[in-house]
Amino acid sequence: MAGVTAGAGCRAPQAPFRACGDAVAGNPCGADPYAAAATSIDYPAVTQCSADDCRVGLDSTAPRTLLDLEAPNYRDIRLDEVIQQGLANSTVLHDLGGAILRSPDTAPTTWDPALRDTDPATGVEAALSAFDAQWTTSLFAENNDRAINNEFFGGGTRLLQQNAGTFQSQLAKRSVVGSELALRHIVEFDGNNAPGNAFPNAYTTKVEGEIRQPLLQGYGMQYNRIAGPTQIPGVYNGVLLARLNTDVQLTDFEMSVRDFVSNLENAYWDLYFAYRDLDAKIAARDSALDTWRRVRALFDAGRRGGEAEKEAQAREQYFRFKEEVENALSGRLFDGTRTGNGTLAGTFRGEGGVLVAERRLRRLMGLTASDGQLLRPTVDPVVAQVTFDWAQISQEAVDRRAELRRQRWKIRRRELELIASKNHLLPRLDAVGRYRFRGFGRDLLDSNGTPIPRFENAYEDLATGDFQEWQVGAELDIPIGYRRAHAGVRNAELRLARERALLCDQQLEIIHDVSNAIADVDRAFVVSQTSYNRLIATQEQVAAVKAAFESDKAPLDLLLESQRRLAEAESRYYRSLAEYAIAIKNVHFTKGTLLEYDGVFLAEGPWCEKAYHDAAALEARRGAPRPLNYASSCAPVVSAGEMAQQSHPTVIERAPVVMESAQPVEVVPLTQPDLTPPNAEVVPAPLQQLP
């Protein structure tokens, strides 16, 4: 809005409106007196309980930065602890892309399945409510005073004065086979000045029952469970479709939990690599500092090997590694490993640093941004070779992937909609039956209980059963051409064909994802072997060059270059281990077993005790279906049953692969790195004396 200005959070008091003659300084005549109020920023008033619930995160301490010199306090944490705490603290399934701020309506939460199931418009209970009994009651009174041209229509008078009233109470219900049943009680009062009346005032009472049964269109348990009480092609909201919508929402929730668990594991390995990378850069910095001090000592003594260009070169190497240590410690706000960055499960990036990666992990776990402790992973990546049987996991991916299961739910929905659409190709033929008892009398009830003449009491006359009426008939409605019905069938066929084509393409996409994941596992394992051999070679090179340099047999350039290679090789080796761990996780992601792989199982929350008794009683009645009740065992099958939520044994143990190097592959446990930023104390004193 143009002219909007930000305030401190409270609306400033507005000056009273003044006419042009009362213009004052600062409020010139002609200015809009309501401009400030119209363009000010208002804040919503929420209940106190809502305000109290949103204080999470305000107890966070100041974040740790490069300027903090005190030693950190570590909290060692395992991967299973990260997943357990992350799920326990996450009613909203977090992500690292900021979607919760950009589009909060699309953020997945633990309430989504329940919201879908309890939707009063399209939920399961809403669909079932169409078969509930409806009790309606009405009472109307009216007074008529009119002139009538023909006294025959006025009962013998041309000036009709009338008091009338109608009371009606009805109990109606729709059955699962489409029947409409109603039981009504009607009381009518009529008092007028017609000279031909037997009584000035009279009551008519009626008790009637009515049934309307579709015989063609709208008939049958199957149609009504699919479409519900609708007569419009394409507009269906039966209980079966409502339940399928809930199943789709449950699948979406499972996918959200899967992505969340994948992001937790991605963030865990990001933090693991950040610590390892920091270790490598700290070692390189310390080695560069030691080399610089040696060259500086030769420079101060004026000896060979301490030339000014060599001293400056060694100093530049130290500050280069010092800068890398600072970046590896603090980190920069780059996009780290998360779902959707290259692959659906997440391609390892290892960006950021220890502090940034630690805060990202805290965000996913639902913890405060800082609490005086630094999370530190204690689980090392797998270094043994893990292989998967291609034929087994490809079939498992087709059976287990949530995206395919969700698409199959949609296909089943389209199949049921096609069944309901074909029903509208039939003509509408309804059989109608009505039976009525009538009573007539001057009074509605007998006031004294003594025998009274005939037609003195309307209810007593009704009880005699002397006046009974019935009506039987049929109604036929045939749209010429069935244009709308044919369009509905064709549309349902096209929708079904589209969903089937999407399923085939999704299955092909998933097979490609699985093949990419399998290839990446082998790549990451082979690269980890090569990186380890490279690390061993660089370590030996540094040791040899350092010994030669100390004996004046190697130039400084060669020593500095070997130190840089060692730092890069060590960081690259631990990066390959993290990539291998992510690659194994991605295979389980692509074949639909990530939740089982990480020990996560989905289950419905507990109900109250009475709900279980009601469910047991309802299940016991399913064996004896009744035409008026919805509970019946004769229903279209929409589910193939549950699949055991456990991973198939796809990991095959094989003989260990012999490395090219004689040294065994091992992962050095994480140490407690010195996260204190280097200060002036680590800089050699002679540096300050330089011009």
What do you see in this structure?
The chain has helices at 35-39, 48-53, 79-88, 99-102, 112-117, 124-128, 221-227, 239-301, 308-330, 354-365, 390-400, 402-423, 458-464, 483-550, 556-590, 594-597, 609-621, and strands at residues 73-77, 134-147, 159-174, 180-192, 201-214, 373-377, 387-388, 428-441, 467-477, 651-652. The protein is an alpha+beta fold. The chain has 3 domains: 1-56, no CATH class; 124-236 and 428-477, no CATH class; 271-400 and 499-598 and 648-689, Up-down Bundle (Outer membrane efflux proteins (OEP)). The chain has a 6-stranded antiparallel sheet. Strands 1-6 form a two-stranded parallel sheet. A two-stranded antiparallel ribbon has the order 7-10. Helix 8 runs antiparallel to helix 9 (308-330), helix 8 (239-301) runs antiparallel to helix 12 (402-423) and helix 12 runs antiparallel to helix 14 (483-550). It is elongated, with a radius of gyration of 41 Å.
